[in-house]
Amino acid sequence: MDLFPLARPVLRHIDPERAHRLTILALKLGLAPRDDEPDPASLAIDLWGLHFSNPLGIAAGFDKNGEVPDAMLKLGLGFAEVGTTTPRPQSGNPRPRIFRLNGEGAVINRLGFNNEGHAALKRRLDARRSKPGIVGVNIGANKDAADRIADYEAGIAAFEGLASYFTVNISSPNTPGLRALQNKAELENLVVRVLAAREGRTPVLLKIAPDLTDAELADIAEVALEKGLDGLIVSNTTIRREGLVSSPLASETGGLSGRPLFSLSTEVLKTMYRLTGGKIPIVGVGGVSSGADAYAKIRAGASLVQLYTALVFEGPALVRRIKRELAQALAADGFGNIRDAVGVDVKNQEAT
Question: Which of 164, 172, 235, 257 is catalytic?
Fold first, then answer.
């Protein structure tokens, strides 16, 4: 039973955080649609020893506590990312802390890593251990941590063997000082310690902000290549507000996601693909709401693509539509598989 088309207009008129909790509840009750159609072969890609039947995933922030990763996979997504999770539970910032900008197709949040902590997430992931599907874990640090890098090490220790991959989130704008870990010296220390914390070879990805300078992006690319990061996620939300005119909520403090983030995040994606020479797989995220958007991310250098905010406005049927449109775009350009399209826009620019 799919009640989402009927419920979506109602959800839009209630508090965004309450609407999100109701959505999670509906997913837990099995009230979302299933996509049982096999994905086109052109959408499949293998990375880090994992087989993705399609490149589309749900970004972190939607399912902070790992309550519904399997429900999200049943929507037809190729992978799900849970978190951000911190060692100890924390309540996050005061409410209200989520704001819909309906005219912009955007959301501003200043949640502040609100989550139930490692123990609660670990119980849920352990309970689904035998289930199929790629589920990554996005790890963060508690706001009051004396040693934030130690919190990331704790995340590796807690979820190794349960996570298909790890995302190290140092790019949220809602935890004071967190983005400073993107500075080269601190980033080198972070990456060395996090990679050393692994007992196995679970892939470790780094999620970066879209608000970095060219020099900062170059430093991140250098560290990623030298220290052996497995991947990058480009990008988190932005603190910029250029071009937002339709909503008085645009002045709210927090990270902006959704349609206005698309161009900025895609340009940063191109830059990171160029700086890394295409040697490190990149997950493109930010403003994806159509197959054309997903295809643009891939052509800019993304091997995988995540979305979140567009689902708030368009509902779960968006997943199947994006996959269909993406397969059509690949075929129209003569690509047999998405891996053949990864980074072609950057390569074409460099060739001219």
Answer: 172
pTM exceeds 0.85: yes
Q: pLDDT band for position 9 (50/70/90)? A: low
Any catalytic annotation for residue 164?
A: no
Angle separating helix axes 291-300 and 262-275, nearest 10 degrees: 30
Q: Does residue 5 or residue 258 have the better pLDDT?
A: 258
